[in-house]
Each structure stands twice: as C-alpha cells, then as structure tokens.
Write a structure and sequence with these properties.
This protein is an alpha/beta fold and 353 residues long. Helix 2 runs parallel beside helix 3.
Length: 353
C-alpha cells in the first residue's frame, strides 16, 4: 500500500517534521528541522524504528539557523550513538552566505563544524553548493520524491551573510543568555469573525527567516509545501509561474504554515497563489503567541472554495478558539489535534480533503 505521510513532532515553539513515502515494503524518509533541543528525544525514537526496519533517511533539511529549528538538529549531530545518518543534508551556514565576516552566529557555526567533522554530503544537488533557488537544477529527485525550491534566493542569503555578526550581537542582548521572554500577545478575538481579520498587514523582515529553505515535495501525484519560516513575498513570487501554469492556483495538498502561523508570513497574495485546503501549524505558542488569527483567517478566506482542514500539533490558548464546532461549521473547515502525546500529529497526505 502506498504511503505518503507527514509526522509533526513535539518541537516546542519550533518545527521538527518527518516525511515518509514509498509504494510497498521499505519506505524512504526526510527530516525537516530539529525543533527545540527536547524534540530530539521524539525524533530519535522515529529514527531508531527507521534503522531497525532497514530503511533510509534520504535527506535532513535544516531550513535556517533560528533556535527553534536548530537546537534539536544540533542534538542529533552531537549524538554519537544516533540510530541512522542521512544520505545528504541541506543547510546554508556561514560558508554558504556571501559577504561573510570573521565571526558568526554560535549555533550556526556549531552545526557547520559538526557537519564538516562527520563528512556528510551537504547541498550536493546545487550547482555552487548553496541551497538556493538560483542553484537548483529544476526539480530535484530524492528517492522518487520531487522537490521544487521556493526559498531562499541569493538576495536574502547575501543580506544575512553581510550582517551575520551584527544580528547575532542584537540577539544576544535580547536573549540575555537564553530563550527570549515570551512576548505579550492579544488574545484571539471572541467572537471569531474571519472577515475582520483578513486585511493586509506588515510582512516578515527578519533576516534569518528570509534565508529559510522552503520547497514543494511531490510524490504519488500529491504535494506538500514546506514553508519553513520563509518570507511570504518570496514564496509568492516563486509560486507565481507554477500557479500560472495551472490556471492561476498551484495545487498543494498540504502546506506547513510559514513561521508557525505568523500573520507576517501568511499574506493574502500567497494564499491566493495556492489551490490548497489543508494547513498544518507546528508550535506550542509559548514564545510568540503563534499562530496569529490573521494567518488562519487569510487561509480560510482567500483559499479555494470547499471545506478546509486545520492541523494543530498543540492545543493552546491560540488554537482552542479555532477548535470550536460552531466556528468550524460557520467557516467550513475541520480541525485536528493530537489524539495522544501533545505536539505529535500524523497527517496522511493521500487522505481526501
């Protein structure tokens, strides 16, 4: 029986995703991001099962250097008894960015050094060794999985490369040696009125998010958009020719919301480019109060006609208002949350909407 499944793992306020695909027998697997350090315990259990089954981890993608994506990835590299190694890694560190200065961001450097020590292949499909749109050879085949790059581009990599240490210094001041304090966020409006939440707003300008690796993964005629924390303007620009070739909207069977459902990363234009009725959001909301209601409202309002599905891997103050049957019926969507372990959600990409 054919399998195309996304496991969203408990990653705190971050992302740790495991995609599995295959026709019969042995499956192929890809990891996208590591989440917070505590996420590695959960990922390791999955990797152990993959190794025990004699299957392969085809690709490990670290989308960008923010702590809620890289901490668990570093834990994986530091695990001397890790169950399995990937066939290849995609990651843009200091070496892959232009205009580099002498020093750089601590975690990003640690990841680069660990990869070099291990000798794992990094960014092999890309013509200049940098995982970016300009260097991608069209569709990239990974064990039958077809990957189409959407982000980053050279301009975004150059912007962070040139300001790597400056940005790090600012982050250190804000973090005070650890995690930033949780930002105060207004509660989700009560009652929820989607039409009041869809006006255009500011878009993400954070430099690391702009370097986020984002792509579409296609297998068995189904597509998943892994948006990382990518900027919505670049995602929309990359999707525009794909959407034009399909009559105005590019069909995607599931989108992993950019930046955990931040309003600054889900623009009206981006949603209007997609023929997509399923959105997954990975975050416990503890640090930034994600997902923002505007992001979900735009997905519901500007998406194609038909019943939609919202997947939340945590039940929080920011997701519970959307998990009300009356609201779901009014705006024609279904909601899904973990049946067991908080943060763990399995999504069958072949399931019909």
């Amino acid at each position: 029986m054919a399998t195309f499944c996304l496991n969203v793992l408990p990653a705190g306020d971050g992302d740790c995703l495991l995609l599995s695909w295959g026709d019969h027998g042995l499956l192929n697997h890809m990891v996208v991001d590591g989440g917070r350090a505590g996420a590695y315990h959960h990922l390791r259990s999955h990797l152990a099962r993959i190794a025990d089954a004699g299957e392969r981890l085809e690709l490990y993608v670290l989308t960008h250097i923010d702590g809620d994506h890289i901490e668990g990835a570093l834990a994986y590299l530091k695990d001397v008894s890790r169950p399995i190694a990937p066939q290849q890694v995609w990651y843009n560190g200091r070496r892959e960015m232009s205009s580099i200065r002498t020093r750089s961001m601590k975690q990003g450097d640690a990841y680069s050094v660990a990869l070099s020590t291990l000798g794992w292949p990094v960014n092999e499909p890309f013509s200049d060794g940098v995982a970016k749109i300009e260097s991608a050879p069209g569709e990239i085949d990974v064990a039958g999985l077809r990957l189409t790059m959407l982000s980053p581009d050279e301009a975004h990599l150059t912007a962070l490369g040139g300001r790597w240490e400056d940005w790090r210094r600012q982050e250190d001041l804000r973090r005070r040696g650890g995690i930033r304090r949780a930002a105060k966020r207004p509660p989700v409006p009560d009652p929820l009125v989607v039409e009041d939440l869809v006006a255009p707003g500011p878009t993400d300008k954070e430099l690391p998010n702009g370097t986020s690796i984002a792509f579409v993964a296609e297998w068995g005629g189904r597509r998943v958009l892994f948006a990382g924390d990518a900027h919505p303007d670049l995602l929309a620009s990359s999707l525009e020719p794909l959407a034009a070739a399909e009559g105005g909207r590019y069909r995607v069977d599931l989108i992993k919301a950019s930046h955990h459902g931040s309003a600054k990363n889900t623009s009206n234009r981006l949603i209007e480019m997609l023929d997509c009725r399923r959105m997954a959001i990975s975050t416990n909301g503890n640090l930034h109060g994600h997902p923002n209601p505007q992001s979900i409202a735009r997905f519901l309002h500007f998406g194609p006609e038909g019943t939609k599905d919202l997947y939340f891997n945590y039940v929080t103050d920011w997701t519970k208002p959307w998990m009300t049957q009356a609201v779901a019926e009014r705006y024609r969507y279904r909601f899904h949350s973990p049946p067991g372990l908080p943060g763990a959600l399995s999504i069958n990409i072949f399931a019909d909407n």
